[in-house]
Amino acid sequence: MPRTAFFVSDRTGITAEMLGHSLLTQFDDVNFRRIALPFIDTPEKAQEAAARIREQAAADQCRPIVFTTMVDESLRKITHVAEALTLDFFEIFISPLEQELGRESSHTVGRSHGISNFEEYKTRIDAVNFAISHDDGVMPRDLNEADIILIGVSRSAKTPTCLYLALQYGIKAANYPLTPEDFGAHTLPRLLLPYRTKLFGLTIDPDRLSQIREERKPGSRYAALDNCQFEVSEAEALMRHVGVPYLSSTTRSIEELATTIMHRTGLTRRTF
Amino acid sequence: MPRTAFFVSDRTGITAEMLGHSLLTQFDDVNFRRIALPFIDTPEKAQEAAARIREQAAADQCRPIVFTTMVDESLRKITHVAEALTLDFFEIFISPLEQELGRESSHTVGRSHGISNFEEYKTRIDAVNFAISHDDGVMPRDLNEADIILIGVSRSAKTPTCLYLALQYGIKAANYPLTPEDFGAHTLPRLLLPYRTKLFGLTIDPDRLSQIREERKPGSRYAALDNCQFEVSEAEALMRHVGVPYLSSTTRSIEELATTIMHRTGLTRRTF
Predict the structure, then answer these.
(1) Contact with chain A for residue B14, Cβ under 8 A
(2) Which of A27, A233, B10, B238 is the most exposed place for a label (fewest CB within 10 A)?
(3) Spatial distance between the Cα atoms of A203 and A183, rounded to a whole number of angstroms
(4) pLDDT for A189-205, tens place per residue?
(5) ipTM reported for the complex surpasses 0.90
(6) Domain range for A106
(7) Nearest-CA distance from B264 to chain A in Å?
(8) Which of B101, B129, B157 lies at the terminal end of a domain, its last residue?
(9) Are residues B65 and B197 in the same domain?
(10) Does some domain include residue A208?
(11) What is the spatial distance between Cα A159 and Cα A167, in angstroms, rounded to a whole number?
């Protein structure tokens, strides 16, 4: 029988969902039904949310688990119902922080994902536009603006990793696919030579690569296992030969790839 | 004098950073120096992290604040130093969850941003590829696969919102720019007619729009305030006329736009 988990917030609910998700993954033999209740920013909505949680408790015959990041204390109290286990993130952590910093918190709703700073916003949007206009080997003249250039065979997760770096961290990431034409010479494609220090490689297990390519172009030479083995082995040899660090995307999520690359290259976030 | 905040994690540190950030934004008159220490996954690295925190305490003459999501208890203990205020998300929340669920947590490092499920991973990557191949009015035949189609004038934040929906939620989002050619007819562009129920609009304050366009094409007609006023007013009139709901991106972050759109349309995440 699944347990129900609610994510209740007076704004986007992103923090509540992330916190709750991190915790719930520690109980992987429990099946959770997840219900997001974002934008609970009036007493009426808070009462509706409370009613929704109570209904679920009655239907499940079991206490729902409520992850909440309500900043407003009066709304927060309404959503705390006896029929649920409420894990209230702000309630627990704000007080020790207030003590440590010697001041009261501003209790401002939804500050963390607001558009507090136009400069920061622009940094992010510019990075996203940069990633899109420098995707898949498209290399206009402003490549020297790149913070990093990801290289690797087609379908090694370069594009989503670049977009994640841009959206989450405001980092300008370009990507360039290594294709069979780039192998054999044992040197980087000419276009990339001036930017050697900005290069970072992605690689992938050939079986997984073949599986991914097969869904895209079934039965093609592009997707054939022996071709994938060849491309991956040549790409890795090239990166080792020219001294470009690389990482496998086979067992890493986009988040892990992005943060690992930042960690290894020393890049730091441009936005928060 | 800035206070130092550390984000310590045995994996990506994304959760620690987000939770810490949410809390720190409640103290906006304090200047925080933020230091991420991700991938602290061995006793040696934990000791280095502890030393780093102690050094900072000595340099600042003030306790650093440490936000941590260490799952492994032995590593967690090493990073808890007397010289800092440590706010440990797992320590505080895991225990009530274990009680409620009647079982021990698996104490698995970094589960939440791992590539636990290949299907889910594919959903996300497919959504990202969909967003890129359906960006800015590029509309191949598979538009009926779209979960949502964002419309709005150029530079109203359609593209980053689509990418966020894809990356974070696995939602297939296309976008189509409303241009001066689309105004006057008081009807949707012909291409969009079959997908009316999938449309959602973004609008923006004309002053802000002019400012954004000015950075892109300084002195252009495209960026001129009167042109921006005209385009925004026509686009909003069109959306009202044909009954497409819309939202202003002027004071909303990408996260807020994406979650608000999901909330209003009833779309739910495809991934976690």
Answers:
(1) yes
(2) A233
(3) 15
(4) 988 999 999 999 999 99
(5) no
(6) 3-113
(7) 11
(8) B101
(9) no
(10) yes
(11) 12
